[in-house]
Structures are given as structure tokens and as C-alpha cells.
Amino acid sequence: MIRGIEASRSGMAVEQVRTDVLADNIANINTSGFKRSSATSTEFDTMLLYRMGDPADAAPQRVGVLGNGSRVDQVVVDERQGDLRETGRALDLALTGPGYFLALRPDGSLYRTRNGAFLQMADGTITTTEGYRVLVEDDAGNRVPLVVPGAEPEFGADGTVLADGRPVGRLALDGADASTRLHTRYLEASNADLTKEMTDLIVTLRAYQVNQRAMRVQDETLAKAVSEIGKV
């Protein structure tokens, strides 16, 4: 009985994580370049049960296999390409194919993003919407912040950055290959589909409720076993 309650509890925990992931997908349905995630679950190792000490048969008697509930295996990011939508804005960039834009956080760590809605600060620094400095690779292959004072940068399909017609570097990309292309005046839409996310959320909530009811039934049965059988 206690094992059954634990199995129901672990099932509820899995569905809670899945609900959180789906809620994040829905919250970012309009975030440019967002990649949806999904939580996968797996079963805990099963137990093989034997009946021991049977006076009719001294040999251990195999009863069967007992499940121990489930757990979250991993949260997987869906890397499928999102649709491109034209914006007409010079600093809006979109990637087709694999790869991420790279930016520099204030603590010096790298930030990967598919959201190419960049901004130009007063000093010419190009940043992400979060304020992180966009990186380019110079002729020596070093990654440096992109700064274009007094001019609006232009971008080539291969990521080359031009200022007043002169190349100043190439956008630093992580995970790109020969098929990766840069599109200017476009943004990549989120690849999350609201209909699918809402449908999956309903299924997840129903699964949570089933585990919740199973736990309640087992708890009531255990209470009766303690209070009524103990009187016999």
C-alpha cells in the first residue's frame, strides 16, 4: 500500500514538471526564436517479488513484478525551424538552419539565442533585447562585441557585418554549419503551436488528477486497515 502511494506521488511529480514545461512554451508563444521543450519520463527500476517462508513449499515462490513509479528522464528542446516573418527593420535578423547568435553577459559568460531582434545603443554597441552585447569574429578569429558608432550596420547572408560598406567582422554563431543562412529584416517565430500546447496541457492535467485520485483511494484504504482491522 505504501509503495502504491509512492508510485502515485512520483506520477504527480512527473506531471507537475510536464505542466511547468508546457506553461513555459505557452508563455513564449510570441517570443522570437523560441524553441519549445518537452519533458520525457521513464519508469523507476522494477522489483521482482517472491513469497518467502511458505509452510507448504519451502522454495521461494515468485509473485510477480512490482513497479516503483516514474520519474522525469530529461527535458528535450525541439530544434525545429520556426517560420520567418518580415519586419522591415534593419537590425532584425533570423537564422535558417542550425546555429545560435552569441552575446556576452555582464559576468563574461556566453549567451546563446535565436532571437535576432537586436538594438543599437548610443555608443554604437549592438545588443540583444536583454541588453547583452552581440559578438562578432574579427580577422584573427577573436570574439569581440559588435560596435558600429555613427552608422547602422548591414549584414550579409553569410553573417558578414558591414559599416559604411566596410567589413568589420562576421557574426559569431554557435553550432552553425554550411547550410546556415542569415536573413536581414526578418525574425524567426516561435516553433511552439498554441493548439498543441493547450491539448498537451489538458492531457497532463488529467493524468495528474488520475494519480491524485489513486493516492486518495489508497490513503483511505490504508486508514481503514489501520482503524478497522486493528480492532479484530
Could you please describe the fold and organization of this structure?
- The protein has 232 residues and is α+β, with helices and mostly antiparallel strands.
- It has helices at residues 2-27, 194-227; strands spanning 37-43, 47-51, 61-66, 70-77, 84-86, 92-96, 100-104, 110-113, 116-117, 119-120, 126-127, 133-137, 143-145, 154-155, 160-163, 166-171, 173-174, 181-184, 186-188.
- The protein has 2 domains: 2-80 and 196-231, no CATH class; 84-188, Trefoil (Acidic Fibroblast Growth Factor, subunit A).
- Helix 1 (2-27) packs antiparallel against helix 2.
- The longest helix is centred in the C-terminal third of the chain and has 34 residues, at 194-227.
Helices, strands, pairings?
Elements: H1 2-27, E1 37-43, E2 47-51, E3 61-66, E4 70-77, E5 84-86, E6 92-96, E7 100-104, E8 110-113, E9 116-117, E10 119-120, E11 126-127, E12 133-137, E13 143-145, E14 154-155, E15 160-163, E16 166-171, E17 173-174, E18 181-184, E19 186-188, H2 194-227
Antiparallel strand pairs: 1-4, 2-3, 5-19, 6-9, 6-18, 7-8, 7-12, 7-17, 10-11, 12-13, 12-16, 14-15, 15-16
Helix pairs in contact: 1-2
Task: Give the helix/strand class.
Answer: alpha+beta
Distance between the termini: 20 Å
Please give the radius of gyration in angstroms.
28 Å
Count the helices. How many? 2
Counting structural domains, the number is: 2
List how many beta strands DSSP finds: 19
Question: Which runs of at least 5 residues are low in confidence (pLDDT < 50)?
Answer: none
Estimate the helix proportion, in percent. Answer: 25-40%
Q: Averaged pLDDT, please? A: 88
Main pleated-sheet profile: 8 strands, antiparallel
